[in-house]
Amino acid sequence: MQGLLGFLLSFVCIFNMAVAKADITDWFSYDEAKKQVYFKLTSAENANNNGLNYNGYYQGNLTLKVPVNWLVNISLTNRDANATHDIILTKPFGMDNVPDELTGESSIIKRAYIAPLFSNETDNLKFTAKTGQYWLFCGVKGHGIDGMWIKLDVDALLEVPAVDRR
């Protein structure tokens, strides 16, 4: 019985590691020669944070890391049947002054936003990464203030893009 239990626990651990690794490669890739990074984000990916999430992440628990001057390509698909979602590149906000609502005009880099998408719609965004710390923020009323944002760090010391999940 102990042998079977040990085998099952080993299988579960290996399976969980494989799933954890596979989930990131489904939505993150880069071309070092072209200096381009690709993030495929899905709003309301799961029930985390009541569906107010990108790929299940919210309130800064995911940081996308990009080297300076790389071309950032973000694809956003809305899986929420009940609400629109968008994405706007913003400066980081203090926890006591997170806005309730934003439009694309609030983007810190001109045209670095995706307008609100209805269920099963997809749109894309491209911009050149400039040094700094940013948020990818859902500007739909009540979403960002309720935690629908992740981080984007652009760093001159990075050689290739990375993802930091906490």
How many separate domains?
1
Q: Summarize model confidence as the mean pLDDT.
A: 90
CATH class: Mainly Beta
- Helix-strand pattern: HEEEEEEEEEE
Q: In percent terms, what proportion of residues is strand? A: 35-45%
Structural commentary:
This protein is mainly beta and 166 residues long. The chain has a single domain (29-165), classed as Immunoglobulin-like (Sandwich). Helix content is 14%, strand content 37%. It has one helix at 2-25, and strands at residues 28-31, 36-43, 62-67, 71-78, 85-90, 113-117, 122-128, 132-137, 149-155, 162-165. The strands form two sheets. A six-stranded mixed sheet has the order 6-5-8-9-3-10, with no helix packed on it. A four-stranded mixed sheet has the order 1-2-4-7, with no helix packed on it. Mean pLDDT is 90; it is low at 5-22.
